[in-house]
């Protein structure tokens, strides 16, 4: 019995634990206490990391604002003809890079050339009409001069006759005839003056200031303008896309035929939280990572900060950009558009309109936060390879 008891005692020392009331072995007290301490340490570490991250993001919003919601922007133009006609030539293909002055497409010029010829003919007719009216004015002026000369002659003769009548050389009837002749001569002068006025009114101003000539000149200029608009050229360096043209197709004035994306001015539009706007200023340095160019970082500068957004969608009356708000205990802060310009020596070749980007702005000049932001944007640049 003593040996059995000793074996049991030795077995108990080997296992390091006793048995409970139900005969099951109990866990050692030291191991149980060590597990709880490890759990507490892990919890404290997790809380510490969470608190540090929370503190970092609070400070970062006011020192190095970040946005993962940025897009490459450029001027987008709708290319539409100013005249209606049949497409005679298409000089580009969809998504082609073009330079300023490159031919995009042409409309059959023949109808417009005919219109120019007709306008030139009308201008010549107007000139001839003005010439004829000028001759009529000259004739009316000559007639008036003759009538005035005749009236002066009749007045002189009448004066002599009346003198002779007073002296008794002529009878009174001769004086009556002389007075009647004066009245007729003066009436002829008045009629000639009226004819001259009518001729002058019909002629109007002389030369190119004549209304008929001006109207014909305006018609000719319009015809020439329309003829010039049959050739559509690129307004600058850029890309043509959304091409909807084929030879023989009828295009209508004002109807879009293709889209032109300018490459002469490219910028970023980043949505930044409202609580970061107070530290943003024009000219601040920023760094950009483009999804289209993974692993690369581009320098940029804050160009402007938006002053308004529409609450739910683009307001057709103001054109303000869209901004959505979430509901909950902690609402998503409002976001405002911030415009950034790429550095001249770091323009992203290959970036496309609408390409997504991440932006971080060095707004406060804090060396520690700037260093963290520097590392953060480079980590994001590496992650773009797998995003």
Descriptive report:
- The protein contains six helices and twelve strands.
- By secondary structure, the chain is of the alpha+beta class.
- The protein has three domains: 62-76 and 264-383, Beta Barrel (Elongation Factor Tu (Ef-tu), domain 3), CATH 2.40.30; 81-107 and 230-251, OB fold (Dihydrolipoamide Acetyltransferase, E2P) (Beta Barrel); 112-225.
- The strands form two sheets. A six-stranded antiparallel β-barrel has the order 1-8-11-10-9-12. It has a four-stranded antiparallel sheet with strand order 5-4-2-7, with no helix packed on it.
- A hairpin with a 6-residue loop joins β9 and β10 (297-305).
- The longest helix is centred in the middle third of the chain and has 57 residues, at 110-166.
- It is elongated, with a radius of gyration of 48 Å.
- Residues 1-17 have low confidence and may be disordered.
Secondary-structure map with pairings?
Blueprint: H1 2-15, H2 29-63, E1 66-79, E2 85-90, E3 96-98, E4 103-107, H3 110-166, H4 172-203, H5 211-228, E5 231-233, E6 238-241, E7 250-251, E8 258-273, E9 285-290, E10 297-305, E11 335-342, E12 356-362, H6 367-383
Antiparallel strand pairs: 1-8, 1-12, 2-4, 2-7, 3-6, 4-5, 6-8, 8-11, 9-10, 9-12, 10-11
CATH superfamily of the largest domain, by name, is Efflux pump adaptor protein, beta barrel domain
Count of alpha/pi helices: 6
Structural class: alpha+beta
CA-CA gap between termini = 74 Å
- CATH-defined fold name of the largest domain: Elongation Factor Tu (Ef-tu), domain 3
Task: Tally the beta strands.
Answer: 12
- Rg (C-alpha, Å): 48 Å
Summarize model confidence as the mean pLDDT.
81
């Amino acid at each position: 019995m003593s040996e059995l008891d000793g074996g049991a005692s030795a077995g108990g020392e080997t296992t390091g634990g006793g048995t409970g009331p139900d005969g099951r072995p109990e866990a050692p007290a030291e191991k149980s206490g060590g597990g709880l301490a490890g759990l507490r340490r892990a919890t404290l570490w997790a809380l510490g990391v969470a608190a540090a991250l929370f503190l970092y993001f609070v400070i970062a919003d006011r020192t190095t604002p970040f946005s993962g919601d940025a897009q490459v922007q450029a001027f987008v133009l709708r290319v539409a003809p100013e005249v209606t006609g049949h497409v005679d030539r298409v000089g580009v293909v969809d998504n082609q890079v073009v330079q300023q002055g490159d031919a995009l497409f042409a409309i059959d010029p023949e109808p417009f050339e005919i219109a120019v010829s007709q306008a030139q003919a009308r201008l010549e007719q107007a000139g001839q009409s003005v010439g004829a009216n000028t001759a009529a004015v000259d004739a009316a002026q000559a007639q008036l001069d003759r009538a005035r000369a005749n009236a002066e002659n009749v007045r002189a003769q009448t004066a002599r006759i009346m003198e002779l009548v007073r002296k008794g050389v002529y009878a009174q009837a001769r004086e009556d005839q002389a007075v009647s002749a004066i009245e007729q001569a003066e009436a002829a002068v008045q009629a000639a003056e009226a004819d001259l006025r009518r001729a002058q009114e019909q002629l109007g101003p002389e030369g190119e200031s004549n209304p008929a000539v001006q109207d014909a000149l305006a018609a000719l200029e319009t015809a020439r303008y329309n003829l010039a608009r049959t050739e559509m050229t690129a307004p600058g360096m850029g890309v043509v896309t959304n091409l909807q043209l084929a030879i023989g197709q009828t295009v209508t004035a004002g109807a879009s035929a293709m889209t032109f994306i300018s490459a002469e001015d490219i910028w970023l539009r980043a949505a930044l939280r409202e609580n970061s706007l107070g530290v943003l200023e024009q000219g601040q340095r920023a760094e950009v990572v483009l999804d289209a160019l993974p692993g690369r970082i581009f320098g940029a500068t804050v160009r402007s900060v938006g002053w308004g957004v529409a609450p739910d969608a683009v307001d057709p009356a103001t054109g303000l950009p869209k901004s959505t708000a979430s509901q909950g205990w902690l609402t998503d802060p409002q976001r405002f558009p911030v415009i950034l310009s790429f550095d001249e020596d770091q323009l992203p070749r290959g970036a496309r309109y609408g390409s997504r980007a991440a932006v971080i702005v060095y707004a406060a000049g804090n060396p520690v936060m700037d260093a963290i932001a520097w590392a953060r944007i480079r980590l994001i640049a590496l992650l773009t390879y797998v995003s």
